[in-house]
Amino acid sequence: MTRKEAMKLLGVKKLIKLADKLELTTSAIAQWGDDEDIPDYREYEVRELAAGRTPIRLLKSKQNLTQSVN
Q1: 15-22 vs 3-10: helix axis angle to the nearest 10?
Q2: What is the C-alpha R_g of the chain?
Q3: Quick check: 31 and 23 in contact, CB under 8 A?
Q4: Which among 66, 14, 18, 16 is positioned nearest to 46, based on CA atoms?
Q5: Where in the chain are the domains?
Q6: Of 5, 33, 52, 66, whose Cβ has the fewest other Cβ atoms within 10 Å?
């Protein structure tokens, strides 16, 4: 899957929106070329988000945030 395909699958048109959904920096996303395959683990996260599920890394991130607030 390419960065363009990931953006289309998640319904975003700007790099910053893709970065927000994946909880990554735009500079990390920018390292993926428009027409190059993205890393496999990021493809997994994109597909999980597109299916309405929360990828494991993002789930753990949310759990850590909740624990630090309490």
Answers
A1: 80
A2: 12
A3: no
A4: 18
A5: 3-69
A6: 52
